[in-house]
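sry for the spam today, last one i promise. struct tokens for design, 105 residues
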């Protein structure tokens, strides 16, 4: 597991980018925390820089949208999902379990 940040450092509706084996975005939305690959599957853009609405993030480059719960794209131009990672909150810090990767087909 890697430490992403303190809970207090990630306000509702925001994201933080962390480096692991690949860049990962951690989002705080609707009272939950989600972690997905940071790089859009359509083109090289940081999803942490995107717009969060509910459980979805819109890529800042070409407006592809991804479901933070599943990693699945919800509209074009993205056609491939991004990996999701389990998030654990412990002692006021947010951790991402990078050993467990989920890829939905």
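last one done:
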């Amino acid at each position: 597991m890697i430490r992403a940040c303190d809970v207090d450092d990630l306000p509702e509706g925001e994201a933080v980018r962390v480096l692991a084996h690949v860049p990962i975005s951690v989002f705080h939305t609707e009272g939950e925390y989600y972690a997905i690959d940071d790089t859009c599957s359509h083109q090289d853009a940081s999803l942490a820089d995107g717009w969060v609405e509910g459980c979805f993030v819109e890529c800042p480059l070409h407006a592809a949208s991804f479901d933070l719960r599943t990693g699945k794209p919800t509209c074009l131009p993205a056609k491939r999902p991004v990996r999701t990672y389990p998030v654990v909150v412990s002692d006021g810090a947010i951790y991402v379990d990078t050993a467990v990767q989920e890829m939905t087909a």
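Residues 2-96 form a domain with the Rieske Iron-sulfur Protein fold (CATH 2.102.10.10). ok im logging off now
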